[in-house]
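## tool: complex_structure
## caller: assistant
## args:
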Amino acid sequence: MLELTNLDASYGFLQVLWDVSLHVDDGEFVGLIGPNGAGKSTTLKTIAGLLTPKGGKVLFKGKSMNAVPAHRTTQMGISYISEDLNLFVDMSVRENLLMGAYTVKDPERQLETLDFVFELFPRLEERKGQRAGTMSGGERKMLAIARGMMSNPELLLVDEPSLGLAPHLVTDVFNSLKRLQEAGVTLMLVEQRVNATLEITDRAYVLEQGKIVMEGPSSELIENKHIKDAYLGI
Amino acid sequence: MEQKTSLADALRETISENLAATIILVATAVLAVWLGISAGLSQVIISLVTGGMWALMAVGLALVFGVMNVPHFAHGESFMVGAFVAYFVFTPIRDYLAQNPNPALTAVAPFAGMIAAALAGAVLGVILERLLFYPLRIKSRAGEWVMNAFLLTVGISFVMTNGARLLIGATFRGIPGYWLVPPLEILGTRIAVDRVMAFAIALVSIAALWFFLGRTRTGRAIRAVSQDEVGAQMMGINLNFIFPLTFSLATAMAALAGASLLFMFQAYPTVGLTPLYFAWFVVMMAGLGNVAGAIVGGFIVAVFQTATQQFAGIAWTDVIPTALMIVILLVVPFGIFGSEMEE
Amino acid sequence: MTSVELELRQRQAQAGIYGTIKAMLHRLGFTPLGLALLVGVAVLPVVPYFRQEHILRWLVAGALLAGQAAAFDFTAGYINVVNFGFAAILGVGAYTSAILANEMPFLIVQPGISPWIGIWIGGLVAGLLGLGLGWLTLRLRGIYAAVMAWFVGLALLGLVRNLTPLTRGALGLSPPTLLPGAGNLPYFYIIFGMMLVVYVVLRQVTLSHVGLAFKAIGQNIGAAKASGINPTYYRVLNFALSCAFAGWLGGFYAHYYASLTPATLMHTSKTVEVLAIAYIGGRGSLWGGMVLAFPFVFFIQHLRSTFTDLPGLHLVIYGALMILVMIFYPDGLSGLWEATLEKVRSALSKS
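## result:
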């Protein structure tokens, strides 16, 4: 579904990604782990079209995405849930979700997805009239993920959903991601919580200083010595 | 402990912000009543008519700032364009009617002028956005956009006023009124139909805009862009569609204001200056980029303006509201209803 | 190009008498080329063409505009605040001096103070106003400060228009001239000298540690505060200086053109004219607008006298130039010059 080949990316003169190659297959749940500042978010932003790659290729369903701007990637079926969430703080929960379905022109399908999302996050339904800016951190995360679902994406990119969340909420969020995979969505998750990520993903890549240093099935990586030393602190 | 103090701070801040808004609103109401008692109801109605028009101007200004971060200094020139277009569309029809009376056309002619003005404004808005703001956005460095955009609009204003002088000439072109019918009797006061219509047009346009922004897919997209540009792009919203649309809407509204006030403000190259001042008073007082605030603010400023004219003389119309605005800005720099620039 | 290369080669010559002179010049804020340009303009009246009275008037207008552009850029280009009330402040200086010089009965006061003294008082009053304006805009950034200054300018314009016993309102004043009966030549040297004073003083400030503080505040007020710079002091100081010079130049305006009305002097469009020159010339350079002012006045005046049937054409070109510069070269003339110098330098060092 998604394939990055020899991707280079930079902010101005500062190069962040070097020769990154990875792929995500249909229906897969892939993790991208690594320390702070390794370029994980940059990778997602580049896929989402918020950043134009400096070199290399981004292929989505066989089409080159290099020059595709962010709003087109969404229309093509990629949904990106950013670390900053980028919620519309002066809009209600419901309005935020409807914005998520901006690319879905059929109102009935919008409402269907809305029902599905409310089923996934019943808490959001309880608060559908509340202004997004007044919600708690956990609720905002849920709203952002739910909003990302509203465009019926084929590929969902999730950036650090656990950041700043209480542990029991992290479990909730991770469970909902797993349920999305079961519903047929392909996912790519960027996380610093290595253990939890490796437990729910099928495969994972390790990104360090802008380069992929390791890849493999998550069940194998969790046993890897480098991973254990560097990330799991065992 | 820390959280509590920040909460208390936040609370105090909210109260003090609302305090400013409350004081201003109460002062406006008192002033309006006083105006009604001492100068007659007609002055209150004049405030309402002007208020509607300043609101129509200010809403566009607020929208353009909220969505595109453009402090629009050439907004008055959109008013000017509207006034000229309405004049050049309406007067030939009127002259034709003088020869060939036709009641149906007489009723439609004013609207023809205004709709032509609004359309011209809409087209002008798209052209300006694509031709000037788009390349500026591509070239501008982060952090310099607001000031660069401001200076760009200053240049646009200069070119448009002097361009109008060059092309159309510096003569005043006005009309005594769109509707040459006797004034209406409202609550014992005689009010010219043109004023009533101007007020109605302002209200209908603002209501339509409100509905559009709140209830339609595209309107919501505009609000989304003003709240979070990156988030909006992530939802699949094309900024290159939203920006021209927003600018076009704002320009059309200003042009409509210019057209419907043609009986008060004769078309002239620099006719947009006064509306521009007052629209800026409104948005600065209400809070830059705050669309709802701009609507209320339009009426507040109009009451101040009419009261100044009434009690201090017409010569002071610029000075006293300006001085008031300076004081308000000193106390609440982000406006009485708050601005999105605020952090 | 040759002059550039020459300058560069000479810059490379470290020692010698020329180096010493250059260092001294630099301390005053002049490059050899800049000095040459100045001397060139100063001796222009030797050329018969420039000795014509109407051409001398253009030269006066050029020097006046150059001084204003430098004073404006001192605020806009250094602390990054656009003083949108600049013309109004200049007008207050002009009116102060004009009223002080008044001996006529149609104003309620007849101080009859010599314009030679009055223009200094005008500068002082404008400087005090600048102090106030600096304080008013202190809490405001970017567009808010610009709009606040604009509102203050509008209020001042309205005041001057309304205080008819002092200003005769829209009718305006006809103050006495500095040199009754004299031609334009002495005026040219007076305003040229004033322009030089404005530049040298402002340049001294920007070259000192104060200038560094200005730039720091202009770029990032938070960071400037963190490194111990008190923005209040520097912003107020900057406004006071810039406005004082504006008022001083305004005094010259009053006693040269001998005609003042609120609209021709204090209107927002007058600020825009100065602003356009300063920005097209290049912000944060002081000299960009000054260099541009002279050819610009000549260009505009030629345009005006050639196309008398097209009123406002020169202003359309003014605005269009500004739009083009904003979009395509926001660094302006001085930025272009620096970039060219840089290119030449790197080309020379390679060869």
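## assistant note: Chains A and C do not touch (no CB pair under 8 Å). The domain at 1-77+155-234 of chain A is CATH 3.40.50.300 (Rossmann fold). Handing back to user.
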